[in-house]
Write a sequence for this structure.
């Protein structure tokens, strides 16, 4: 991958709303060249999509519940964890699946309208899969930072004394 492509990816990773004209100006390239490179990256599935990070806690009458579920599984012969992960990520409630080191094999991010809804998903869909041995569910109580973006408003300066080693 060329350096210019990496530069484009870094820019749009920070701000997916960045206009092609602005990217071209920042990188000293023509608009047409940047657009061709972006189109190529999309076609090669390097760029898989564009998203917006919303702080749903600030939207009235909208409550979204997120749970991180640690899942211990029996890997499938010949394909390891991939087939199990694929079966899990196909559920619409599942927002992300990661293969992990440690006591559990997969970390699954699940979203729903209520804790009960997530509980039903885990007990009726996820836990009943043949390859799933056990699950441990952690509900997200508050988000402070997501994808490098701080979600808290800092109205006050931190009044604690700075201690350095």
């Amino acid at each position: 991958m060329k350096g210019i492509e990496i530069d484009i990816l870094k820019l749009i990773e920070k701000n997916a709303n960045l206009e092609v004209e602005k990217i071209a100006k920042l990188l000293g390239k023509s608009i047409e060249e940047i657009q061709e490179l972006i189109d190529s990256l999309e076609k090669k599935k390097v760029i898989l999509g564009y998203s917006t990070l919303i702080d749903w806690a600030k939207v009235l009458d909208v409550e979204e519940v997120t749970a991180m579920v640690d899942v211990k599984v029996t890997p499938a012969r010949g394909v390891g964890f991939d087939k199990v992960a694929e079966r899990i990520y196909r559920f619409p409630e599942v927002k992300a699946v990661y293969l992990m080191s440690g006591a559990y094999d997969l970390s699954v991010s699940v979203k729903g309208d209520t804790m009960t809804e997530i509980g039903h998903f885990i007990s009726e869909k996820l836990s009943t899969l043949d390859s799933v041995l056990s699950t441990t569910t952690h509900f997200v109580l508050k988000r402070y930072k997501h994808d490098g973006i701080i979600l808290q408003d800092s109205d006050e300066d931190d009044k604690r004394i700075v201690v350095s080693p």
Summary: The radius of gyration is 21 Å. Residues 31-43 form the longest helix (13 residues). Residues 93 and 152 are 26 Å apart (CA to CA). The helical segments are 3-14, 20-27, 31-43, 82-89, 115-126.
